[in-house]
C-alpha cells in the first residue's frame, strides 16, 4: 500500500473542523452523536481522509458504546494498531494504514467470530452504500 503523506496545514484545508480534530489530532467525537453510530445501510466504510476502504457493513454491529463498531476490518493491512497510554489508560489505537488518520480504538470484547470491537469515530469514515 502506498503511504499518503501531507503536511498538517493541507489536511486542515481539506477536512471539516470535526474531521481534523479526530483524524489528524487524535480527538474523539461524543458518543451517540456520530452519523454512522446507528446506521444499518449496507456498504463499505472508507477513510474520510484518503478514501481507503476500511470496514464492510457486514462486520458492523451495535456494541451499545455509541460509536460505530465492527468485529474486523476489510483486511488486516488497511489499518495499523498502536499502543495508546493517553488519559491514564492502556488502549490500542486504530489508524488508517494509508494516511495515518486516527480512527478510534480496538478492544477484545467484541462478538464472534473475532472477539474484537473496533470502536470507530463516524467522522473518520465515509460510507459508500452498495
Helix/sheet category: mainly beta
- Secondary-structure element string: HHEEEEEEEEE
CATH architecture: Beta Complex
Look up the CATH topology: Metal Binding Protein, Guanine Nucleotide Exchange Factor, Chain A
Q: pLDDT below 50 for ≥5 consecutive residues: which ranges?
A: none
Rg over CA atoms: 14 Å
Task: Supply the key terms.
130 residues, mainly beta, three-stranded antiparallel sheet, metal-binding, 2 helices, 9 strands, Metal Binding Protein, Guanine Nucleotide Exchange Factor, Chain A
Report on this structure.
The chain has 130 residues and is mostly beta strands. The protein has one domain (8-129): Peptide methionine sulfoxide reductase (Metal Binding Protein, Guanine Nucleotide Exchange Factor, Chain A, Beta Complex), CATH 2.170.150. Helix content is 12%, strand content 31%. It has 2 helices and 9 strands; from the N terminus they run ααβββββββββ. It has helices at residues 8-14, 17-24, and strands at residues 43-47, 53-56, 60-61, 69-70, 79-84, 91-96, 102-107, 117-120, 125-129. The strands form 2 sheets. The protein has a 6-stranded antiparallel sheet with strand order 3-4-8-7-6-5. Strands 2-1-9 form a 3-stranded antiparallel sheet, with no helix packed on it. A hairpin with a 5-residue loop joins β1 (43-47) and β2 (53-56). It is globular and about 40 Å long. It starts with 7 loop residues before the first helix and ends with a strand. One of its GO terms (cellular component) is cytoplasm. Residues 8-130 form the MsrB domain.
